[in-house]
Amino acid sequence: MTENKQLGRIALTEQEKKIRDDEGYKTYQKNISERKKNGEELTIMNKSEWIKSKPSGESPSVKFTRLAKKRMSVTLSNMDTIINLSSGQYKATPEQIKKMVDTLKDKITAIENAFGKVKPESEKGFDF
After folding, report:
1. Does residue 73 lie within any of the structural domains?
2. Buried-state track 21-60, b at ≥16 Cβ within 10 A, e below 16
């Protein structure tokens, strides 16, 4: 790699970019093939399409589904660890429990709002 001192970073020559893209495309093909073996419905893009769509080479809906599955799995596992705090091993005050639950509810509301799905007032619960 050649160093571009004016920009203070390393700049790649055209040949180095081509080598990087060739290696990246081979890795992309391998990853997509593996994921197809695991049952995902994907098509392998040609190299020029892949270069334009880097880094993932996936459609937005496929990428969303893949990331959402992973993130939900991690989140639900982490929530199970919070549930484990209710065992007899630990002692929490009612205020601590309320604060934890309220914080989680607030985050759920933020998720709903981020996706444009605000609950109707009647579903938010009862309050005087």
Report:
1. no
2. eeebbeebeeebeeeeeeeeeeeebeeeebeeeeeebbee
Overall pTM > 0.90:
no
Six token digits for residue 39: 């049952």
**pLDDT band at residue 125 using 50, 70 and 90 as cut-offs:** low
Is residue 62 included in any domain, yes or no? no
The three-class DSSP label of residue 86 is coil
Q: What is the dihedral of CA 110, 74, 28, 50, to 10 degrees?
A: 0
Query: In sequence order, what are the residues at sequence separation of 6 or more whose Cβ sits closer than 8 angstroms to the Cβ of residue 24?
Result: 54
**Euclidean distance between CA atoms 57 and 47, whole angstroms:** 10
Residue 127: domain span? 92-128
**Is the Cβ–Cβ distance between 17 and 10 less than 8 Å?**
no
Specify whether the CB–CB gap between 56 and 67 falls below 8 A: no
Return phi, psi of residue 77, to 5°. -65, -45
